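Entry:
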Amino acid sequence: MEDDLTQKLISLVEEYKEVNYKAQEIFKELKLLMRKGAINPWRVNIMDSEGKFIDEYLNEIEKELEIEKEIRLKKK
């Protein structure tokens, strides 16, 4: 029973990592399109089910990427 729960937890964590990675890739692409002027976030106003605008997510992801970059630089 415990092994089944452990395996399920591992599976859920792996699934979360995969979905999170894909979401970050999508948001990176959207941010690039915004920088190029192809998408205007103020005109599109994409919101999720929680009422959060896409630019809020992009700012969060940008901060996470900066933190990851700093961590990698410190490891070198």
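Residues 36 and 71 are 28 Å apart (CA to CA).
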